[in-house]
Write a structure and sequence with these properties.
177 residues; mainly alpha; two-stranded parallel sheet; elongated
Length: 177
């Protein structure tokens, strides 16, 4: 940013080289990246960004959600396409997601939907700690294997942070899962 600001000839060379710019996960750009893109895009504004303010998770790394929230102000000729149709999730999951993201303070309005069936009821639990979570998961897997005759290949466990893997592994191994 400093180089492009101070050396207009260098900026011009890079603007000529990169006439079209695509940025994915724009909601996670920081101030320097924002400035760099503004400089590179110049008056032509040939900038295509993909992002979702409801998926902004890197504020702790300096990401500024305002970059995407103000995109249409910054690039007034831009066309916005909301990709609200979800092809993976069931209607139940999307209803819960819509209800949750509606509480986000800084967001662009959207309504996620799907052509898929309703799916299973979404279950929400508050457990005491990570050990209680791991025990609950192991019990749920074992119950489905015993009652519904699922096999181990039918399960996957997703967790929020790598630190959770150890207790999950311990509990699952103790339960022979």
């Amino acid at each position: 940013v400093e180089l492009f600001t101070q050396c207009h000839d260098v900026l011009t060379r890079y603007r000529d080289r990169f006439q079209y710019i695509l940025v994915d996960e724009y909601q996670d750009t920081n101030e320097a990246q924002y400035c760099l893109l503004r400089l590179l895009a110049g008056k032509q504004g040939n900038l295509f960004v993909v992002g979702d303010p409801d998926q902004s998770i890197y504020a702790f790394r300096g990401a500024k959600i305002e970059n995407i929230l103000n995109f249409q102000e910054d690039y007034s000729d831009a066309q916005i396409y909301r990709l609200e149709k979800n092809y993976r999730s069931t209607c139940q999951i999307l209803r819960v997601a819509n209800d949750l993201i509606r509480h986000n303070m800084n967001r662009l309005e959207k309504n996620l939907y799907s052509d898929r069936d309703d799916g299973h009821e979404v279950e929400s639990l508050m457990l005491a700690d990570e050990k209680a979570e791991a025990i609950y998961i192991a019990d749920a897997i074992r119950n489905l294997m015993d009652r519904e005759h699922y096999g181990l290949k039918d399960f996957a466990v997703f967790y929020r942070t790598h630190a959770q893997s150890r207790i999950l592994e311990d509990i699952l191994m103790r339960r022979h899962i």
